[in-house]
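G., the chain you wanted modeled:
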Amino acid sequence: MSNELNCCLTLVCHRSLEERLVNHLLEHPNWVRGFVILQGEGSSQKEVLPSMLEQVRGRSRRVSFQCVMKLEDARALIARLKQVANNPEIAYWITPVIDFGRMD
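Predicted structure as tokens:
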């Protein structure tokens, strides 16, 4: 099973960190073969709300990255991100992927 794409790594951060995380993901094509970026809103106890509008609303615009990948690669990427992009406003989780493929 180690050769299979067996997990989904999700990274969530404030929109101000989007390009920085995109660059980190693109730097590791051996781990990250592709990803999806989703726009949303969220709130966190660790979050700093930089704008007045976000402070009034109590939430901020967030981006979520989803990468289907090998579990060992996801763990390696998280370890690397902790070294170079350590930020308490970046959240992550890893979930199992039962099956992954393309419709061709």
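The longest helix spans residues 71-84.

Shout if anything looks off.
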